[in-house]
Amino acid sequence: GLGEHRAKAERMYSLMDGFLKNDPISLQKDILHHVEYTVARSRFSFDDFEAYQALAHTVRDRLIERWHDTHIYFKRTKPKRLYFLSLEFLMGRSLSNSVINLGIEDQCAEALNQLGFEFEVVAEQEGDAALGNGGLARLSACQMDSLATLDYPAWGYGLRYEYGLFRQIIVDGFQHEKPDYWLNFGNPWEIERIHVTYEVKFYGTVEEVEMNGEKQKVWIPGETVEAVAYDNPIPGYGTRNTINLRLWAAKPSSKFDLEAYNTGDYINSVVNRQKAETISNVLYPDDRSHQGKELRLKQQYFFVSASLQDIMRRFKEEHTNFDELPEKVALHLNDTHPSLSIAEVMRMLVDEEHLGWHKAWDIVCKIFSFTTHTMVTDGEKIPVDLLESLLPRHLEILYEINFNFMEELKKRIGLDYSRLALLSIVEEGAMKNIRMANLAIVCSHTVNGVSKLHLEKLKTKTFKEFYGLYPEKFQCKTNGVTQRRWIVVSNPGLRDLISKWLGTEAWIRDADLLSGLRDHLDNADFHLEWKMVKKVNKMRLAEYIEAMSGVKVSLDAMFDVQVKRIHEYKRQLLNIFGIIHRYNCLKNMDKDSRRKVVPRVCIIGGKAAPGYEIAKKIIKLCHAVAEKINNDTDIGDLLKVVFIPDYNVSVAELVIPGADLSQHLSTAGNEASGTGNMKFLMNGCLLLATADGSTVEIIEEIGEDNLFLFGAKVHEVEKRRQKRLSNLAPLQPAKIPLHFARVLRMVRDGYFGHKDYFKSLCETVEFGFGNDYYLLTSDFGSYLEAQAAADKAFVNQDKWTRMSILSVAGSGRFSSDRTIQDYAESTWKINPCRCPL
Ligand code: C3B
């Protein structure tokens, strides 16, 4: 009975000595304990890395306590839960983030100190968890932090790739990719759940059987793989709540393959089993096009099947009736990548739970929501023949969903076959495909864009037809980033300064409070301290640059940064052309004019997908230009160009706080949102940007005067593209701005060497060839003007500091807390569920 239960609990607590304590002495004891018994080193001799391991385990123990309490509390209160399904999470490092969110940073620092270690040095030992490509993946990580902090009953699901995003090394200015076998040094943050496993099936056939007098489809799979759960605790800030990110790894099925063993081919049967493990081995390093690859499809289904079995098991433990599913479960599709979930839930409800198609469909339409992250129309597709062999039953289900959808459509819009063809989930043609976005839109109750501008394009272009059918589904949830990582972890100087002048740390949970900084806009002491913080961050960055590239940079120079994945649409090429132009100007200047020039350090970083040739050429060009300019003694400190290799989350934490200016150059209408801009904004770095994605909303918040805006607006882009094409027939070199033509010619003619190699890169912006699809030619003039305005503003440090303060003060709206609260209230309909202390 109850009394007995309580007695047992009390006995257990007395044995456990209550909860772990967080004073420096207790932490020290725990660290030493882990040095000796977990790391198995002598407590009298361990190095920084071993200290990191021991501290990580010490922190992990505390995370586990909270994780347990949170889950017991969720189980007891049975709230509606959110399951966030994403194939990518870019978590970066965990130590500093965990320690800060647990509120034990000072105690940990002191504990280490007394042992002869320094927290910052120890924290540097940690490698990044890079289970994602770029913005989409880092967004998932920021959103997990917000879900935990805001006490939402949520779980994240993903894949535990053994090879994360490749590491970029630069040899002779060329990108090379090295595998990121990140688990090599162990991962103290994850908890392996060897007993939480599910079988995931592939291939085989579909058969029809009679059951209770009714015909029923059954899938007889041909291959079975096991999914094992690895849990990663995600602590909230200022709350005991610690939620879970469950990542799946593939293991050979424990089912005995009798036939293979009996035929005597023991070695081969073991080798075959081993192949199963490759499913979750490696993250696809291309952040937008992985079409028609069987392994990718296998990864997607492996992820979907394991996650949904886990979710349904939990639901069935707590509830008996599937009618309750929509009230208790929200499934969120992070882009189209997990969209097979729709077919899988239908299969589970129809084939396994025998609910009948209509009832199952009714439920499915109430539980899914979907966020798309791209402006591109031609989204993810799965070739039907691939599906047919890998997931035959799912293909049937997808056909049936589409058949019903088409029938309903015909009733609504008649036999308008061209419209029907556009809307269809199945793309007909020589190669039949399943259009994942169409599937996600038809079956989700909400379709979210990631900025206002993005949503507008979804409604009027990308998914115009769908918007006509389901206007109420389309919503805007402008992205955000977490101030916990992007200020508190990465910029401790700024954190202290903000808290001091606001008189509170409450902004760490409520970013809107940052607007209070406006009250001190004209305070001279505040300005002084503000500039000091930036200076210290610039010093840190300068040291890193020198260590990485050997280039010495002046702290008086403007640190100008463009870091993000390399893509033509993000126009790193525009930046490089601008740098070449600046170089030309400097070369032509007399001594007197040179004295007035603002020195610049141009910093570029980012990875190119391994198969993306043009992006790789951009990286090489950056190095070629850097080599020329940095070695020109005539230029000195006036201009330096630096490529930062292997840009990732931890590099971002170093680079962003040290930037004066940051560039966001996408041709308007191409960047769905952008989140880097928000991180720079939060760190008091001014933006030089086009009116694209979320930048439009940043302008709404801080005003046009507080950043450097340039380039064609969205509505002008289409017109210019048309014009550009009509100019084609007789080439009109006169229409190409002189500066642009000169810079292009220098690259073309081999001024930076590698003439042949850069030819195809130049052609992307040349008429008669690539036709400058991204409009570098026509935006170049306005880009240079914006750059000149930035130079001018930098000379007036008072003005610059005001702009910088106003940037941070206006960044509150771009906290992922705001995004997540909006999702929770209007899309997922979930409530906070705060675990009591
Ligand atoms: C990115 C988009 O390119 C960004 O504009 C956006 O801010 C982020 O997603 C987050 O919404 N994105 C990406 O990183 N990978 C994709 N495959 C598609 C979009």
From TrEMBL:
One of its GO terms (molecular function) is pyridoxal phosphate binding. The keyword rRNA-binding does not apply. It is an enzyme of class 2 (transferase). Keywords: Allosteric enzyme, Carbohydrate metabolism, Glycosyltransferase, Pyridoxal phosphate, Transferase. Its EC number is 2.4.1.1. Coiled coil: none annotated. GO terms for biological process: glycogen catabolic process. Its cofactor is pyridoxal 5'-phosphate. GO terms for cellular component: cytoplasm. It comes from the Eukaryota. It catalyses: [(1->4)-alpha-D-glucosyl](n) + phosphate = [(1->4)-alpha-D-glucosyl](n-1) + alpha-D-glucose 1-phosphate. Belongs to the glycogen phosphorylase family. Allosteric enzyme that catalyzes the rate-limiting step in glycogen catabolism, the phosphorolytic cleavage of glycogen to produce glucose-1-phosphate, and plays a central role in maintaining cellular and organismal glucose homeostasis. This is Alpha-1,4 glucan phosphorylase. It comes from Arachis hypogaea.
